[in-house]
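tool_call: predict_structure(chain=1)
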Amino acid sequence: MTVEIIEVLDRAENGPIMPVKEWDAKFLPQLINRKLKEYDLLKTYDPNNPVNTDDSLADAYWKAGFELFVESGAYNLNTSRRIVFTEREVRQILQDAPTLWVTGGPNEDRVEFRKRFPEDKTRPVSVVGAMGIYVDEEIYSKVLMSIAQWHDVDCLLASTLPTVRGRKIKARTPLETYVGKYEGMLYRQAVAAVGRPWMPVWCAESAASEYGNLGGYGAPGAYRQQDLAIILAPTELKTGYDMLHKVAHDIYAMEGVAVGNHFSMIGGYCGGPEGAALAAVSAAIMQRAVHFLTVTGGLILNMWTMGNCDRQSVWADSVTHQAQNRNSHMITLGLLSNLYGCVTPEVLYEIAVLGGTHVVSGCSMVSGTRPTGCRYPNHTSGLENKFAGEIAHCMPGFKRDAMNEIAKALLPKYEKNLMHPNKGKSWYENTDPKTLMPTKEWWDIYLKVKKELTELGVPFDKL
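tool_result:
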């Protein structure tokens, strides 16, 4: 029997006690290091080959990551207790993971999330938008429309409102509950306006706490049961009652589905890219076990740049996703956190490198795009999201060794300036507010980059 939600809530209250400082600075780093040594994974990062092509290495990371989660469990920040599972329970949880989830509406807005393997020919889903980026309330709907109008975008990602009807949103106040529905209503109106009323949405984004989900997911006129509720796990291998509230509401009460991710940090408590990759494998299992996700993500972020398209992150991402997708039933996601801004060729190179790596490593979903790493408000557009969808849809069946060669060609074009990337231009400067189309300058850059990538072997002709 698989572990039910009520049992996870019991364990969050009754599991072994541990101070959070011990978890962060001693228990988990020591366990990660021990597993890296046991499986001979130290110094396996290969900067000369940013996309892993070694199945045995991916499998070793899976075995080590599985054992890591069985020994660690998840840490509950509210009770300072570990939520632990037996090995048998974890194996059953993974066995019970869904391999197919269908949402959306009829015809072209029907979306199928299918289990994929590395180099799989099955088409992944593009779930993209101005993820985590503050977008001014007065242009919010137009920004959504400028993204949703492109049919390379399968599902729309939530953007963040800094205000609700002119009022600044304060964490853990009733305004967060209010903005959950308000944000959902704006989304429903935007996708209907571009002729895609059934388009699924990843929600909710504008509230810092769980109240946004409680107010918006399932509310009349706002987010629907078929939309993708967000449950994001904090680093490393943690949960809390804000996340578990969402589990109880979105999955149990609403009988909906949840999608989420967890960033394992290169340069943090995990150490280098090897430790982060190992923790990310465990984090994917943790989210399925503790948060009951339909689509789960054990992801990488580099704490030095706060992006994930650098060489170390791409390698770690390829390893962890190949480990997950070769060895489990889970439907997995990849997430793009770009550092360059719109109207730069570099942001498209970043998307091509990591988005392509997601696809060839077996991810069922490519998400993002987060220009400027969400540092600057309104720095988004429809075009980089269209491009991310094109990469997701043209790369199925592409080989990892070919993707490795593309990554080696493109990384030198942007990696040297990742600490000081060009922030580009905001939506006000890169999109015509009447037609919602990109400016000629931005469109010309897009065409030029596509031509470069076609010459490198990216099969845009499959679109």
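agent: The mean pLDDT is 96. Proceeding to next step.
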